[in-house]
Structure formats: structure tokens, C-alpha cells
Amino acid sequence: MRKIIVLALLALATPQVVQAKVMASRPPVAQKPQIPVIVHQRYTLPNGLQVILAPDKSVPLVAVNVWYHVGSGDEVLTKSGFAHLFEHMMFQGAKHIGEDVHFNILKKIGVSAVNGTTNTDRTNYFETVPSHQLETALWLESDRMGYLLDLLNLKSLDNQREVVRNERRQRYDNVPYGKERFVMSALLYPEGHPYRYMTIGLHEDLANASLEDVRGFFQKWYVPANATLCLAGDFEVAAATKLIAKWFGTFPQSISPPRQKVVTPVLAENKMETVPDSFARLRRLHYAWHTPASYAQGDAELDLLANALGNAGTGRLYKTLVHEKQLASTVSVYQAGAQLSSTFNVVVELKPNADLAQVQFLVENELDAVMKGPISQREHDRAVTEVETSFIWGLEDLMARAEVLQGYNHYLGAPDGIAKDLARYRSASPGTILQTAQDYLAKSKRVETLTMPAPAKVEPAPAAPTPMGGAK
Amino acid sequence: MKNLLVFGMLTLLLPQLALAAKPPKVPVDGRPLVFADEPWRTEQPKAGAPHAMQTPKPQLFSLSNGIEVLLIEHHQLPTVTMELTLQGGTIDDPADKVGLASACMGLLTDGTQKLGQIEFNEAMADIGSSIGSYASTDQRGISLATLKQHLDATLDLWADSILQPGMRASEFDRNQQRRLTALHAQKGNPSSVSSRLLGSVIYGPAHAYGRFATEKTIAAYTLADCQAYVATSIKPQGGRLFVVGDITKAEIEAKVGGRLASWKGAAPASAVATAPTPRTGKIFMVDIPGAQQTVVTLAYPGPKRTAADFHATAIMQAILGSGFSSRINMNIREKHGYAYGAGGGFSYNRTGSTYYAQGAVRSDVTGPSIKEILFEMTEIHKGVTPEELAREKDGAILALPARWSTGKSTLATFQNLLYFGLPLDDYDTYVQRVQAVDADTVLAAATAHVTPAAVQLLVVGDAKTVLPQIEELRKAGTLIGELVTLDVDGVVKAASQPANRPAK
User: Fold this and answer.
1) Is the domain of A71 the same as that of A105?
2) Contact, B155 vs B84, CB < 8 A?
């Protein structure tokens, strides 16, 4: 009963398949899984804020999730990393709630998941709270949407600038292969392209970010019409709608700003760069190509091809390099989707004694093979099954469900995108995958990095940041 | 068809209330928006009563071969997760073959007698299922996750990996090579080096919680060792089967009970952890030349999970170091900007716990970071504020439903209770017990369990930058005790003179 109300099952399958389900004694060899639907509705406040409501009363929790439709893809030259630094500032306080108390307030009301994240395409903010505390979450979200700048100050910006630079050190500068990611981005994207310095950005750009930047970014991008609020969980639709009107309804009318159009770079030649890395102990090859944007024609095909080539345990490159020849410790292949354009990536970590030329030759062979002939129907079906299965597992958590709805709303223009999304994979075929590979994965269109373990370079210590505080 | 209708209708239901609020008309001309002055926003909304929730009740029953089953039915999604846990683990590894249990348990799911490794992987991938196996210090497990429609096929593979694992020489060799390569790779990564060595610093390099696999111990075990291991140690007695998802007791009895009916017997008794014998020294430095951050860990053995003051300890550790609002994080990150984040708490095992406070801090402020963490570990002995106490108590009580928010988290909660030997109805009285915690019991827990003098300090970073800062702390008396320099494998490179007294 609950299943029908909350997560109705949508039969996307053909009539034959439905019949197969009725005849339950037959082994369901080719049976497609039934894909659950997240029951929801969407509306827009007169000021432009979009709202998605997905009620589910099974547990007294509600996931509150706000997407601002701005990401590092909207950054401009000398401002790399800013969208993410700005995200940190959104936790530092707003006029009515006070300074640096966001987490404190949420902790006291029993928050179980709280954070914010930034990628190339969007910035999200979320908290899962006990359902009777929904209004406090709306209070917090509305205050930073409307009144962030009232408490903005340089001390707080300086602090978060350091925190973010530490985040960069922790995620990129102090780990194996972190350097490679920057080199790869610089090979792929020319100066001025917003993906060149990745979402985390350059230390120097972070160091130069000013209060004026924070104000300008907020006023341009964080307007109600450029945001979508999603609630998933235990609430009455009428009551939640009323609360949302109370906290967000008096905000002024706005329009979402146009996002920059950036032409996908075309690589003039096959480029390769060697990256010395003092944290890496294994050599690592990374090949990348420019490919169609998330949800664009060809994106799903490349997801499926990535599975056929690189899935751990079954992919062609895994079988050859890791299993049979034992030249690589890991292989990973993925289509890294993004809104302006994506990249297709092949990453191979070599075993200590492996012959580099042999590995390169074998990778080339496998890439040639998928450019010359279609993958098998079994490889194709396996990849589609993987997509469908992970989609279903991903619906268990309330916040994950909110994210699914937000994602479709952002990329496809409507939250009910499940059928449309999965249809992309179900309508792809070994033939369309081959065509896509031929269109995008030519050797002449790729860049390569080779990470080499190296001793640490003796460099002058980086410019010491402004001393902050000191011993108590 | 009916479902399609449901799907189609719901997106058309626009709540009329949404149109009730009329915002002021402001021209959209690129000028900053003006948000009204609304002083009523200053007050945090008053919440009503929490919505009631019943603690889920697991079903308990036994299979014919004695395996005890704990089932949580969860029918919202067409998925099933199972984990068969067995007693024992790496604690039972022979001293010269550390890593044996992990390797042999891993081998169980590297192919079966019927299917080679790749065929086994493909059979799983074709239906989107996954099967895995592991050995931790004192628990072993073989798990599966599948869509309900593929339960039978997945159970066939899962049961085969328990009853008829492949144990081929080729698979053993690959497995062993994979472990050697992974070990080699992690030696360049400061946080991996830190996790590998931490236990040895606190419990001693020979202790079950302190030892770790090396090239030598990995090379020491053979396929014959794993074959013997499987023959003697993969036995159902004492085993527990944890199940959550779209499945019933009757289905488990028929499908799992049926497949495992012939499986009988008991494994040799598992070892029990001995008393810690911490490594000689107090401060342990591992040099990672060029590191831009230092992974700093202050740690020592702590109380048992079943201790009478557990809840007071939990509230105390939350105030001190777990969560964003904790003192250590607010100090290291929000006040000083030394790290992306810092914190810690008690990490419980079957016989006790490890207290740790940790952060990856900027190399040039490693000394000040250690000093600040020690400051907070001392300051907590003065007690906590009423605001901190209320935040953590209210928060813990109100967050209780989140434990039951998904099938997986519900199962993990019960799994933990059984692991620690606690009753399954433990959460029935949770609220009362947390409510009973007060400033006095929190202070007592801090006094008993936060002991800066017991700290073993592990510092993994650029020695050239960090050592002078450590020396400064030693001179000032902030750090007391012997400084030992280790290589990335924990081998002693140099040790300081043990005596250094606080400078007056």
C-alpha cells in the first residue's frame, strides 16, 4: 500500500515483458527491472523560485535541498574556484540567524545530513531534519537566500579562503595524482575556459577573492528565480506550501541570469604531458577526449561504452590489463558529464614492473576495437542493467531522491525525467555506441598524461598566509 | 498502465496556496534585488511535537544449520541486501602471515568451482548484482546486494562462493600480487601511511590492533594456506545472517536455508585481543618530503562500548570533537583556518575503543595545530556549557529516526548492537538514557576518558618543515616524551633522548 502511494512502479517495459512478470515461474532472463517513480509536484513562486515537493511519510524526516543554478562553469578568468568559495560563505551566517551558527542550530534540532557542494553546473545546499523541524530548515535556507550580505565580513572571508585552500591541499595537493588532474584540465581547456582550473580553482585566485566578488556573485546568481527548493519526506503538501510561501514568498521578483555559452574546445593535435608526482608510487596513464554535454546526444552511449571498456571485473581493458596480462593494478573508464561539455576518460595505473610501451599498445588495441566494430549485445545489456540497477539503489535515501528530482529539473527542465533519462540508455544500441565512439574518440582528438613517481621537488615554501589568531 | 496514470497526474497538481503570497513588484533591470526588512525573521520557528515513530522490530529466527537470522522487511524498493557474518578475522592471522584472513576471505568471491573469476564477475554484472567478502580484525563477512527479481541467481553465486569457492592458483596469485601492489601504492599517500601505522603506535607492532601486512607477510602465505583456511574456518556455527529489503522470513528459510542446508560445523575459536603494549616513544614522525599538509593524530586506547557511562562519553566526545560545531573543529578550522576540518572521538571495537583526534593541517602550522588540539583536550576538563550540553543531547535524541531512515541504516544499527553484545531493544530506552546525561556526568566522562598524558602522537608530513615545530613544542613543555622518527613502514630511523622537561 505504502509502495503505491510513495514510490509507484512505472512499467517502462514492453507488453511482452509485463507478461513475463506475470508468468513468474519462468526465469526472468531478459526482464527489465521496473523503475520506481518518485511521486512529486512542482510549482513556481511569483518571484521565480521553483519548488519541488515529494512527500513520503514512512519515516519522520524531511530532506530540504536547494539548488542554485550556478557552478564553477560560470566563473570567469582570474576568478577560478570562486563558486565553491562562495558556497562556503553561505554557511557563515545571515542577518537573522547570526554568524557561523548554521551547523549549531541544525545540530540541536537533530540534523542527520547537512552540507553543500559545488560542481561545474550547480551549487547545492541540504539538510535532513526531523519532520517537525521543517520550518527551521526553511528559516535557515531563506535567510541565506535573502539576507546573506548583511553579515558579510572580511575576517570570515579570510578564514574560509584558508579553509578552502586547505581543502584543495587535502583533496589535490597532498595526494597521489592530484597534480595530474590540473595538468589534464589545462591540456583540455584553453585559458579563459571555466573548466581549466577545475572547481577548486587556483590558490592565487582564491587568495585574491574580495568582498566585492562575494557581493557581486550573490546579487547576480543567488536570486530566487535562479534557485530550486526541493522537499522530500514527511510533510503535508498544503502545510509545506504555506510555510514556503511564508519564508520565501515575500522575496522580490527576479529572473534567472543567462549562463555563459562556451564553445567546446577542439583539440588541434594529440598532446601528451608527463607529470612528476612525489606522492604517486605507480605510473599512471590518463587519456581524455571532449565529448557531448550531460544529457546531450551521445552522452548515454559513452556511459555504456565506458562500462564495456572499464567496468571493474568485466570491462575489456580490465580483462586485458588487470586480469590477463597483469600489467595494471586498476583501470577506470568514465564519461565525466558536465553542462558545457563532457570528457571521456581512460585511466590505467601500471604495476611497478609493467612495460609502458606494452600497456600503451594494448590500450590502443582495445580503443581501436571499439572504433571498428560494435560491442556485443551482452556487453550492451550488461551496461544498461548497471545503469538501471544503480538508479534503483540510489532511491533509498530521501536526500538522494531529492537530488534525483533536482538533477532532472536542472538538466532536463522538469523533475519527472526518469523515463526520459532511462529511455536514452534503453534506446542506445551497439550500433549507436559505435557511431558515437567514431565521432568523438579519435586518437587525434585526445590528450594524455603520464604520471611518473618522482622525488619531491625542493621548492621555496609557498607564501605564508596572513597569520590568523595564534596560541591561546 | 495504472502506474502510468499515477505518474501523469501528479505533475499536474499545482497547489493553489503557492499563489497566495504576492511579492512586491520590483523591476528586473540588473540592479541588486531589495529584500524587505522583516524583523519577524529573527525568531527561530517554534516546532510542534516530533512525529511519532515506532522503533523497527527485527525478526529473529534460525536456519536449520544453526545460522541465526536477523531480518528487517523493507518493501519500498525491489532490493535485497544480505550479509553473512562469521566470528574471527585478522586477529587469528599467524604472526608471520599477517594478511592471511583478508586474502583468503577475498579469494572466496574471486570465482567458484563452476565459474572462473571473470565468468563469476560477468554472471553478477549481467544481472546488476554484487557479491563481496572481507575480513576485519574480529569479524568476517560475505555479502550480496541484488534486485529482488534476480535474488535466485544471486543466491546461487553467493552460496557457491561460500560452499564451493574456486581457490585456483591463478586467482590466488593475482590476489596476492594485487595486495602487494596496493601496499606499494599507499606508501606515498600521507593519510594512507597514517592509517596503516596508527594502530602500531597505540597498541604495539605485534598487537592484533597494531600489526599490519608487509611485503614479507604477504609473500609468506600460500594457496595451500588459504585452502586449509577455507576448509577449517568457513563454518556456519556462530554465524549470523543479516537481511534487509523486499523479502520475507519464509523466502529466506526456503532460498537461503535450502542452499546452505548441507553446510555444517564450527571454526576454531577466535583469538581475544591482549592488553595494549604501546610502542616505545610518545611522538612519532614519518617524513613525506614535500607534503603540504601534515596528518596529525593524537590517540590512545579508550573505554568499552558497553561501559556504564557510554552516553555521557558520547555527549562529551561530540562537544569536544565530533561534528562541525565541536570545539576542535571550530578552533582548528573556523577560528584558525589551519585545516579543512578536524575532530575525533571514540572508535569502538569488540574489546574497547581508540580515542583519536585528527586533522590534515597545513605544514607550516603543524605545531600550533597540535597545541590547539591539546588545549581543547585539556579545556574539556573544566566542563561544558549548558548550550553545548543541550545542543548535543537534543540533537542525539531528535536524530534517532535517522537511524531507521533506510533499510541499510536500520540493519547496520542492529548489526552494531549484536557486535558489541548489546540487547536488540537497546534503543527502546535510548531517549531516557540520553536525557539522564548532565553536566556532572559529562565532566566525569571527560576526566575519565580524555587523557592528554596518554596521547601517542603520530605526525605524517614534511619533516623539514614540521620537526622544528615539534621541537619548539617539546621545549615549551607542550609535548613531553620521546620523539621517534619512523619510515613509511614504521621502522625506527632515529629516536631522541627520552628526557625533556618543561622549560620554566
Assistant:
1) yes
2) no
Query: Are B366 and B444 part of one and the same domain?
Result: yes
| Residue in A10, A43, A131 closest to B15 by CB | A43
Sites in chain A below the pLDDT cut of 50? 1-29, 460-472
**A293-312 pLDDT, tens per residue?**
999 999 999 999 999 999 99
- A370 phi-psi bin (left φ>0, alpha ψ -120 to 50, beta other): alpha
CA pair distance A294, B483, nearest whole angstrom = 53
- The per-residue b/e assignment along B250-266, b for 16 or more CB within 10 angstroms, e otherwise, is ebbeebbbebbeebeee
Strand-pair partners of A333:
A346
Q: Which of B245, B260, B275 is the last residue of a domain?
A: B260
Q: Is A460 among the domain residues? A: no
pLDDT in tens, B275-286: 999 999 999 999
B22 and A46 in contact by Cβ < 8 A? yes
One domain, residues A235 and A118:
yes
- Contact at CB, A42 and B44, closer than 8 angstroms: no
* B366 in a structural domain: yes
A/B interface, count of CB pairs below 8 Å: 334
Question: Is there a single domain that holds both residue B349 and residue B385?
Answer: yes
The answer to whether position B269 is within a domain reads no
In this predicted model, what pLDDT tens digit does every residue of A180-236 receive, in sequence order? Answer: 999 999 999 999 999 999 999 999 999 999 999 999 999 999 999 999 999 999 999
Nearest CA in chain B to A49: B18
Distance CA A160, CA B46 (A): 31
- Interface predicted TM-score of the whole assembly (ipTM), two decimals: 0.92
**Domain assignment of residue B448, yes or no:** yes
Q: Are residues B228 and B345 in the same domain?
A: no
The CA distance from B333 to A44, in Å, is 38
* CATH number of the domain where residue B352 is located: 3.30.830.10
Its pTM stands at: 0.92
Q: What is the mean pLDDT of residues B133-157?
A: 98
Same domain, residue pair B186 and B288: no
Question: Do the domain assignments include residue A406?
Answer: yes
User: How much is the pLDDT for B30?
Assistant: 67
Do B67 and B240 touch, CB atoms closer than 8 A? yes
Residues 166-185 of B with CB under 8 A from A: 174, 177-178, 181-182, 184-185
Q: Does B53 touch chain A (CB under 8 A)?
A: yes
Give the pLDDT confidence of B176-210 residue by residue, as tens digits: 999 999 999 999 999 999 999 999 999 999 999 99
Q: CA A250 to CA B377: how far, in whole Å?
A: 46
- How many domains are there within chain B? 2
Residue among A346, A314, A351 at smallest CA distance from A331: A346
In a domain, B272, yes or no: no
Q: What is the pLDDT of residues B31-44, one digit of tens each?
A: 899 999 999 999 99
Q: Write out the residue range of the structural domain in which residue A108 sits.
A: 41-248
B186 in the same domain as B300: no
Q: What is the domain extent for residue B84?
A: 59-260
Phi and psi angles of residue B200, each rounded to the nearest 5 degrees, phi first: -70, -30
Nearest CA distance, A267 vs chain B (angstrom)? 33
Q: For the CA atoms of B143, B149, B153, B157, what is the dihedral angle to 10 degrees? A: -10
Cell of B455: 596521547
* Count of structural domains within chain A: 3
Instruction: Find out whether B208 and B90 touch, Cβ atoms under 8 Å.
Output: yes
CA atoms of B194 and B490, how far apart (whole Å): 10
Q: Which of A113, A223, A472 sits opposite B33 (nearest CB)?
A: A223
- Residues A310 and A349 placed together within one structural domain of the fold: yes
Q: Within its chain, how far is the Cα of B42 from the centroid? A: 39
Same domain, residue pair A127 and A234: yes
pLDDT at B503: 37
Q: Note whether residue A257 is domain-resident.
A: no
3 state SS for B336-368: CCCEEEEEEEEEECCCCEEEEEEEEEEHHHHHH
